[in-house]
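= Protein in question =
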Amino acid sequence: MFLLSGVSSERGLGISPDNDTLCLELKSRRYTQWSLSDTKLVRQYFSDIVRNGKPLPGKQVVLDFQKKYNVTHDWKIIRTKVFNEKMTYLKHKTLNMDSLMAKTGSS
């Protein structure tokens, strides 16, 4: 929790009890627990985006996926999952290339 005045308030921007100090409390982060089957669906359906570095899917594409596979997460959460899977794939791809380069002695 971050407070500008050191006085706690309701979530968000507010006035302290003495009505002379403005304070701010940042919202806590939300975490989404993904099942292995839903993660696999996302990886398979959006594999072209994840593996080939294409732009993230638009809202309608994600909504179509959501409807087709009955995934209950919000479309923005699904889109974030695609982004995270893409970053994980690129990270591992880079690490694998680095280790291959080290083994062959190339620079």
Notes: Confidence is low (pLDDT under 50) at residues 1-10. The longest strand covers residues 12-15.
